[in-house]
Amino acid sequence: MITEYCNHPTWLQKSIEKLAKAKPYLLFEHLIANILVLLISFIVGVALYKLGEDVLSLLVSTAFDPLKHETFQAVFGGIMTLLIAMEFKHSILIVTKRQQNIIQVKTVILVSMLDLARKFIILDIHAIEAAKIAALSLAIVALGGVYWLMRERDAWNMEHGRQEEG
């Protein structure tokens, strides 16, 4: 056996032991999380390929001018979309490694804030009314406020010896 040669169990051995002890629902949750990670990884790979293809075609056609607002929106909108997808995948990976049972609320809030930031980057200010811009601004301020409150709560809990909640 492998453990005869090594005093420390491998990652695979630890994972098998954890899965053997797990309840059926946790196994189901683990399976779903792994499938989601694979799907998101595939989507990120395809999106990265498409983004690279688009940037290369813009470079070859000499139409790539990063100072043009439309070019900036297209390129950085694609980059932000990839970053959001990767951050979302990372939050699911934490679940698969059993570091936490559920996706943390703070992670969802941060991903939402990233998505709103992406929306502001790709926003065409000439084609959208002021009320929508104000609503998006209010949403990002509200999310920032909730994140700040959660961070303050976690700091208070740490100071007082309580466990972090979310």
Explain this structure to me?
This protein is mostly helical. The protein has one domain. The chain is 75% helix and 0% strand. The chain has five helices and no strands. Helix 2 (24-60) packs antiparallel against helix 3 (69-96). The mean pLDDT is 81.
Which key features would you list for this structure?
166 residues; mainly alpha; 5 helices; flat
Q: What is the rounded Rg? A: 22 Å
Which segments are poorly predicted (pLDDT under 50) over 5 or more consecutive residues?
none
Estimate percent helicity. Answer: over 70%
The oligomeric status of these chains comes to single chain
Shape: flat
Sheet with the most strands, sense and barrel status? none
Proportion of beta-strand residues: under 5%
In the residues, how many domains can be counted? 1
Strand segment tally? 0
Which structural class is indicated by helix and strand composition?
Answer: mainly alpha
* Number of contiguous helices: 5
> Helix-strand pattern, N to C?
HHHHH
- First-to-last CA distance: 40 Å
Residue-averaged pLDDT: 81
Briefly, what is this?
The protein has 166 residues and is mainly α.
SSE order and pairing:
Blueprint: H1 11-21, H2 24-60, H3 69-96, H4 105-122, H5 130-159
Helix pairs in contact: 2-3, 3-4, 4-5
